[in-house]
Amino acid sequence: MSHKLTSQLQELLSDPSLTKQERDRLRSAWQAMTPLSKVSTLPPRPSETLRSLIEGRSKGESIVTRNERKLCQAIVSDQQRLSLVLNAPTLDARIKAVLNQGRLLNLDVKETVVRDILGSMNNRELSDNELGMVIGGKTDIFDGTWRDDYFFGGLDNDYLFGGGGNDTLLGGSGNDFVDGGTGNDWLQGDRGDDTVFGGSGNDSLFGGTGRDYLDGGEGNDNLQGGEGNDTLSGGAGNDTLWGETGHDLMDGGTGNDNLKGGDGSDTLHGGDGNDSLWGGNGGDLLEGDAGNDYLSGGSGFDVLDGGDGNDTMYGGGEDDDLYGGAGNDWLYGDEGYDTMDGGAGNDLMWGGEGGDRMDGGSGNDFMRGGDGSDRMNGGSGNDTLFGEAGSDIMEGGTGDDYMRGGEGNDILDGGAGNDTLKGDAGNDDLWGDGGDDRLNGGTGNDTLDGSYGNDTLEGGEGNDVISGGEWGGGEDALYGGAGNDTLDGGGGDDYLDGGTGDDLLTGGWGNDIFVIDGSVGHDTITDFDPNSDQLRMAAQSPNDFTVTNQDGNTIITFGDSTVTLQGTEMSAEEVWENIQQGH
């Protein structure tokens, strides 16, 4: 490999202030393609000699003062920039200046600064605009040009600047600083704790081993942390971030980003835009932020926060926490005992396997408990809750809610609003709470309480206990259905129908109506008052039923049923008159 020395270099080497040993060291370092990197101490030389190396500077611009101890330790140049490291007469001092003080001075010039330093390398022609000169000793500085540069830092801690063009920068060993600049760059920190900046353009950044910091900058970038606990920032653009192994911190920035945590307990922040976040293995924290985001926790105990926007979230394995935030979100707990909060908006939530805790928040939410014994709260809004399998606890919250317990022994509380509650299979407890509610126990021995408002309560099959609400004061309708039921109207003017079976009916205070439908069963009314309460029968005349008095009670036989009015003696005529008042 041959190298041509320019006339400027020849003039420097002919400087009489240089000793032969210094001149030989400088020439050998240059010819070995390690410009100035192996020269431990640069000799003092007059500023006039240094100026002879520089062409095209602005008129009157002072590059180096006449103070011979204030010398330029390195020259790295392209068409637009001259970089000087000042005040470092020895190599160790130069390293200190770069690393600790950052005394790097950039001066703009109008034309090419250094021309024709090298003519060829590996039989490939290189102009002065393609070559970044290596500076350093144990710390190398590579400063690229506006063309496509290739730099390899090698050992120790290096500084690589790509400048313009589509550059390839590899830090190598050591804790390196890599900056791609403009263009579509390929950047790798390799071994060590590296800092890698993509700059503008669509860049590919690789951390390698060690604890690395990667910043994609502007453009659609690809960032991979590699081994170690890394920090990745996508910046502007639609970026792809992959933490790989280690406990990584990732921020997508603006744009529609794709973030993958990989192994380890990672923190993923999508930022603005419609982002996709995958936690992978380990206990991860996923934050979608603004935009319509997709979050998947993967395996491990994960925390997912959708932020603003209409988000889709999967908890994955283990016990996860899912927060929908603002927007109409879709939350799926999947396996484990998950905690889910829909936040604001009309959310769709599914607990999946395990006993989950779900809160719809504000908005009209749709919730499914899935397998397991779940706890569900619709929050504000008109919500729909399905407990499905397991013994679930369900609260509708405010609003007009629709709730079904599904299988298992469930507890349903409608809360404020006009709610519809169905216990379905199992021995269920249903509470209407405030509002005009409709409750149906379904199969099983259920307990229904309408509480406040004008409620309709149906026991369904089984031996049910039904109450209109002791202090509610509403006009309730109670239907026992099949089975031996207990009905209590509570306060207000109530309607009680025991259905089939041997039922116990209490009207409570108020003007109540008791239905005798003639079906099979033996019912008892505990507090019938002929002056305020009424009997309803399909009898056409007093000849359709019989009345007997026994032990101070009235027994009415109608069809296949009997009704006992406790504490009241009435004749057949009085019973018929009471029935007629209700027609």
UniProtKB/TrEMBL annotation:
Its main location: secreted. It is found in: Secreted. The keyword Flavoprotein does not apply. GO terms for cellular component: extracellular region. Keywords: Secreted. SUPFAM superfamilies: beta-Roll (SSF51120). InterPro entries: Hemolysin-typ_Ca-bd_CS, Hemolysn_Ca-bd, RTX_toxin/Mannuronan_C5-epim, Serralysin-like_metalloprot_C. Residues 469-485 have a biased composition (Gly residues). This is Type I secretion target GGXGXDXXX repeat protein domain protein. It comes from Desulfovibrio ferrophilus.
